[in-house]
């Protein structure tokens, strides 16, 4: 399915190229105070709060002879609008509506392409008069925007969303999940058995092991093929890392570099296995490592090593799970498995669980399913009304996966208590079957200069 297309149109020098550069994320189009810098249509890959679309920067629309250069530029602009899914009509909010703006408006009303209107150069309240004048164009409600300073992007998102959002999220999710081997990092305190476990997984003495703590200094990446019980083969990239001690005990320069290398490995992993030593149980340093993994947005699982020599195994396992529930309040239900790096018991279960965890971490929920869930969640437990003023939550969108990240749009969202955000996150994990993976939830409100007056 072709990407949706947004054509930016307007008279010369209203900031079309500046907005184009902001949407594509780099200075591609030339920008200058002189009008008429852009002549040909320029295309780029636009991104805005998770929306992805093709964006076209067009030449300034001028009323000139069709055979002149400005006339030929105008023909290019007209063609771009006819081919687009939506036209973004920019006016200069500071200058207000001009006769040429009105002429462009008349032309756009005669086209079949949907149009949204933005009053650009509207930093603060600078363009409010121009925005109000733009109602006279008869093209719907204009919104304020500052392409140069990045203000009004939430309103731009809301205006473009109905025309460029696609429901083909399943293809994107498949692309995320099938993007390469499972990147699996094994972390933990020194001497937990990380290198021994890697050797057992690979079936060879690939890593140096021994009773001394801290033998591994560099993070070692190893490619491997795992065959599941059904006979299907999965590519895995294993990363063995240096042990992480308490920061106060890290005084050697080389060890500090090893710690930084381990942290980089966490950043680049998809799933991180925190390996515990069953003979020592769960310690405070383990919880700190686990919190770091979650904060980095990686999928986390706990593996308790040396299970073949553990004493009071049932009591130990339940104690670890209880301590995790209390110590990792930001993420409940982290998988806990038992393994033996010496005998290899539990390794297949570990790899299978890691692949399943990555699936939830990579998942993209379709727009329809997400908003149906959101409506039910808000209806079941409406947000509070602090000071008697209602918090209105409009809709939610997923802006990325790996980890799943969402933006909720509404009014007075800055007053929404953290407890309600936790309610949404917990409901999302349960109802959308995202599993025990880190989720990102951001609250956004469109900038409206009249909000305070309505309060």
TrEMBL record:
User: Which protein are we looking at?
Assistant: GTPase Der
Q: Does the keyword Repeat apply?
A: yes
Q: Which Pfam families does the entry link to? A: KH_dom-like (PF14714), MMR_HSR1 (PF01926)
Q: Which PROSITE patterns does the UniProt record give?
A: G_ENGA
Instruction: Recall the GO molecular function terms of this protein's record.
Output: GTP binding
* Record-level GO BP terms: ribosome biogenesis
Q: Which CDD domains does this UniProt record tie to the protein?
A: EngA1 (cd01894), EngA2 (cd01895)
Record key words, sorted: GTP-binding, Nucleotide-binding, Repeat, Ribosome biogenesis
Q: Domain EngA-type G spans what residues? A: 4-168, 182-362
Q: Which InterPro entries match?
A: AAA+_ATPase (IPR003593), G_ENGA (IPR031166), GTP-bd (IPR006073), GTPase_Der (IPR016484), KH_dom-like (IPR032859), KH_dom-like_a/b (IPR015946), P-loop_NTPase (IPR027417), Small_GTP-bd (IPR005225)
State what this protein does: GTPase that plays an essential role in the late steps of ribosome biogenesis.
Species, as recorded: Sphingomonas rhizophila
